[in-house]
Write a structure and sequence with these properties.
Strand content: 15-25%
Bound molecules: zinc ion
Helix content: 25-40%
Keywords: Metal-binding, Oxidoreductase, Zinc
Shape: globular
GO molecular function, one term: zinc ion binding
Number of helices: 15
Protein name: Enoyl reductase (ER) domain-containing protein
Family: Belongs to the zinc-containing alcohol dehydrogenase family.
Radius of gyration: 24 Å
Number of strands: 17
Cofactor: Zn(2+)
CATH topology of the largest domain: Quinone Oxidoreductase, Chain A, domain 1
Number of domains: 3
């Protein structure tokens, strides 16, 4: 059924909707002779319910557009659970305390007290509207961990007191091909933990807040031996590099993998690759990071990408590269490092297109690929593997009122390697 679009069409849409329900669905049902096949009735009823649902969603959207200031409207939408967080109000990106509300614990929901939340580079891009998609007020945070305080009646995986985490997603359609393959991260209807609109029409708010509510499908069980503060960054940074290492077959012990960029993602890429007993070469523009990469993180070798003789000597040695750099950078020197059939996997998101030289791809059947986080099943697998192998992020734990300074430092890559906000101790319930 087509309902058209736009506020001007709303009346027409409503009349059309009512007529459609009445003529196409109800009348055949009423006129249906006794003994009519049950399947047809069920089909009519389910179509009718689908139409009603779609219409309700449109009404929510219509109501939002009635106001010139949708932020004001969303601020008035009160859920029953009072929450406090830190939000950016505009693209200055300055974060400040923000009172809002969370939905009551639904039958499939888990509510938890947030104890720690990692600061991801995406948070910085989002508060400053670098990608032009930010809706304010915006509460960032998608590396959220804490303790369950309430569970819905149908929740099976969790009970009150359990340690849990929520990463980048809080919703997906559960019926598309990607969802069927446990790849909710590639579901066209995937909902982000913050800066998305939830099914009830309200904004999603992230983990720089004292309380989270999420459908249990998107909640990760937290192993007892994995500390919450140093484990939190695994929920985004960890899965972002774990998933491509595995999917592109770079997790086999005889592999030699390059890691470009030694930041929040890169340092975890080295740690996971070493846990897979893969040979690791860190590729960086900073000569000063050599001892850090080799002595502290356990990388096998180190290349400075601007030293042509070093790069030349290492050409044709790598089976794959995880490229974590989110600034515009040349790909040619990296492609030259790959063996035949080598894979260059991009997990950073430069704001502008990169130049892709094709000749080096042809000569050696090389692949340039991408990857974005991972599905919930794989995220759980990654967290469990991290706990078994004692893989944690190197973090600087900060109080919430340091968060604006932390953002300034993150913009200059002045952190080893992830800021984690101590929400539990420093975000006071106002
Ligand atoms: Zn992230
Ligand atoms: Zn889906």
């Amino acid at each position: 059924m087509e309902l058209g679009g736009g506020i001007a069409n709303y009346e027409v849409e409503t009349r059309g909707f009512t007529a459609f329900i009445s003529e196409s669905l109800l009348q055949p049902l009423v006129a249906m002779p006794a003994g009519m096949d049950r399947g047809t009735i069920v089909q009519h009823l389910s179509e009718m319910l689908k139409c009603i649902w779609e219409h309700l969603l449109r009404r929510i959207d219509f109501a939002r557009r009635l106001t010139d200031d949708p932020i004001e409207l969303s601020a008035r939408e009160e859920h029953p659970v009072k929450a406090i967080g830190w939000a950016a109000r505009d693209q200055s990106g300055v974060l400040s305390p923000f009172k809002f509300s969370r939905r009551a614990t639904g039958i499939n929901d888990v509510t938890f007290k947030v104890l720690y939340c990692g600061i991801c580079h995406t948070d910085l891009h989002s508060i400053k509207n670098d990608w032009g998609m930010s809706k304010y007020p915006l509460v960032p945070g998608h590396e959220v961990v804490g303790i369950v305080t309430k569970v819905g009646s149908k929740v099976q995986k969790f009970k009150v007191g359990d340690k849990v985490g929520v990463g980048c997603m809080v919703g997906a359609c559960h019926s598309c091909n990607n969802c069927a393959r446990n790849l909710e991260n590639y579901c066209p209807k995937m909902l982000l933990t913050y800066n998305s609109t939830y099914y009830d029409g309200t904004p999603t708010y992230g983990g720089y807040s004292n309380i989270m509510v999420a459908n249990e499908h998107f909640v990760i069980r937290w192993p007892d031996n994995l500390p919450l503060d140093v484990g939190a960054p695994l929920l985004c940074a960890g899965i972002t590099i774990y998933s491509p290492l595995k999917y592109y077959g770079l997790n086999k012990p005889d592999m030699h993998v390059g890691v470009v960029g030694l930041g929040g993602l890169g340092h975890l890429a080295v740690k996971f690759a070493k846990a897979f007993r893969v040979k690791v070469t860190v590729i960086s523009t900073s000569p000063g990071k050599r001892s850090e990469a080799i002595e502290h993180l356990g990388a096998d070798s180190f290349l400075i990408s601007t030293y042509l003789d070093q790069m030349q000597a290492a050409s044709n040695t790598l089976d794959g590269i995880i490229d974590t750099v989110s600034a515009v950078h040349p790909l040619l020197p990296l492609l030259n490092l790959l063996k035949c059939d080598g894979k260059l996997v991009l997990v950073g998101a430069p704001g502008k297109p990169l130049e892709l030289p094709v000749f080096p791809l042809l000569s050696g059947r090389k692949i340039v690929a991408g990857s974005a986080i991972g599905g919930i099943k794989e995220t759980q697998e990654m967290i469990d593997l991290a706990a078994r192998n004692k893989i944690t992020a190197d973090v600087e734990v900060i109080p919430i009122d340091y968060v604006n300074r932390a953002m300034e430092r993150l913009a200059k890559a002045d952190v080893k390697y992830r800021f984690v906000i101590d929400i539990g101790k420093t975000l006071k319930d106002a």
